[in-house]
Structures are given as C-alpha cells and as structure tokens.
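can u do me a favor
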C-alpha cells in the first residue's frame, strides 16, 4: 500500500506540473551526469537491472521512439537511461542506492548526456564547435543525437529538470581519452563552473563527484589517469573522488562489466550520502 500510495502521489505531481506549469518540488533531487563511454553505459544491462523503484526517474535527453520516450520528459529510470541503445551506467545504481537510503519523501532524478570516446573538451562550450568539426566519423552519429552540442543539451535538460526539482550534484566519469593530461583538472573546472553559471547553481551546494577509471588490478589500460583524477579536489574545492578499485572490468581494459557498473554506482552514492546536506 505504501509503494502504491507513493506512486500515485508522483503521478499526481507530474499531472499537476503538466496542467499548471511550474511546480518545483524540493524533495525531488536531481543529479546531472556526463562523461564518455563508461558514463554512457558500455555493458549490457540484465533482467535484474530493469526492476526500478518508483522513486527513481530519468529525464530523457534524446527522442527514442522505439522505447516510447520523448526528449525532455521524465520516465521511470529503466535502462537505457543515456540514449536509445546504450547500456548500464554507474548512474543507474547511484540512483537506486540513494532511494534505498533516503526517506520515502525523497525522489531521485538523473540527467545523463555522455559520448563514448570523447575528450573533456567536448563539454567545454568554448571548444565544442571545433571539437565536433574534427570528430571522427564513428562519433558523428552520437554527436548528432545531441544536435552536435552535448554541453548545450546538458544545460537544456538541466533547466527543464529545475522546473520540477532541485539539482543536488554533478556526476562525472571521463578521462580515458585524456590519459596523461596534467591539465585535465583545469579543463574539468571550466566545464563545472560553466554549468554552475548556466544553471544558476552555487558551488558550495553543488558537489562534483568524479569517478576513477578502471583500476590497474582489473587490467585498466588508463589506470595511470587515476593519479591525475585524484588531484581534482586541489583545483575544485567541492570535488569528491569515487574510487573504482572494487569494480570489475572487462577484457578490453577500458570498460567495466555490468557488475562493475553496479558497484561503481554504489560507490558514487556512498560518496553523495556521506556529504553534508
């Protein structure tokens, strides 16, 4: 009865919004997610991953007719939550873990705009046009799904989300394509501060959770980048590192398995839950 009641309240909440317009709920906590293939979702999701708590939603960032989903609308966060044919992401189990550990009055929403193989510069609004112009052919279809500007799509979805809820944090998983780039923390800082400005967010209220890449003990080919990722809090005062040492990888040495994504998402959630409200 409790679950059904919560479900009915959530349905009424969105019916109210659609009918009367702006109706921001302070108990609807939204997290903005971006990055490359590991945030996009590389491994196939399994049956267990399709069972989702009715307090966990994702905002559709692209149209997916085959899934009966429209860009800019909220849906129960069943994978795929990034694009129409992507896989399981750490954001999936991040959201699940939050709803399991927060009061029943709290709902969780996810926005995920990610592009496999991209450098962090793709999300820098000052370099995105040049980056897209030079992008390899295999990336062009993914870029086109975001009208060739993933950063703008992230901001667009963020503003839509703010009409119904409150953005509580930003999740990043990126770095494979920037491995060895000592300037990566500064590049992340530019993207982060642009997001704060464009979404009217305050730095002290908006933590950035940055996940490590596949660890060396899992055969991670880019594990050396974790040393650079770990320095991010020296550049961003509200950045927090999510460790990956217990997250299973796959044979390519770049991506996590489905089990690895589940654990990585739990690790993200543990960091978020440990932060002061």
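np, heres the sequence
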């Amino acid at each position: 009865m409790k679950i059904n009641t919560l479900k009915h309240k959530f349905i009424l909440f969105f019916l109210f919004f659609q009918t009367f317009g702006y109706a921001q709920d302070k108990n609807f906590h939204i997290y903005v997610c971006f990055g490359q293939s590991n945030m996009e979702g590389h491994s196939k999701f399994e049956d267990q991953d399709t069972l989702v708590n009715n307090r966990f939603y994702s905002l559709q960032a692209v149209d997916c007719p085959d899934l009966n989903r429209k860009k800019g609308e909220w849906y129960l966060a069943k994978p795929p939550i990034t694009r129409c044919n992507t896989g399981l992401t750490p954001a999936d189990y991040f959201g699940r873990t939050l709803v399991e550990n927060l009061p029943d009055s709290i709902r969780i929403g996810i926005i995920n705009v990610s592009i496999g193989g991209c450098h962090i510069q793709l999300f820098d609004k000052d370099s995105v046009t040049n980056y897209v112009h030079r992008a390899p052919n295999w990336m062009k279809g993914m870029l086109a799904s975001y009208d060739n500007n993933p950063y703008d799509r992230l901001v667009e979805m963020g503003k839509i989300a703010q009409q119904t809820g409150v953005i509580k944090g930003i999740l990043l998983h990126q770095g494979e394509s920037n491995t060895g780039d000592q300037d990566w923390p500064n590049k992340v800082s530019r993207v982060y501060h642009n997001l704060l400005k464009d979404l009217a967010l305050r730095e002290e209220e908006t933590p950035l959770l940055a996940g490590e890449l596949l660890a060396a003990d899992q055969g991670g080919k880019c594990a050396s980048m974790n040393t650079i990722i770990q320095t991010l809090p020296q550049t961003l005062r509200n950045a927090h590192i999510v460790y990956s040492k217990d997250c299973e990888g796959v044979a390519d040495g770049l991506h996590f398995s489905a089990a690895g994504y589940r654990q990585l998402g739990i690790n993200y959630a543990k960091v978020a839950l440990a932060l002061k409200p």
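Strands lie at 28-35, 56-59, 74-76, 107-114, 166-173, 208-211, 239-242. hope that helps!!
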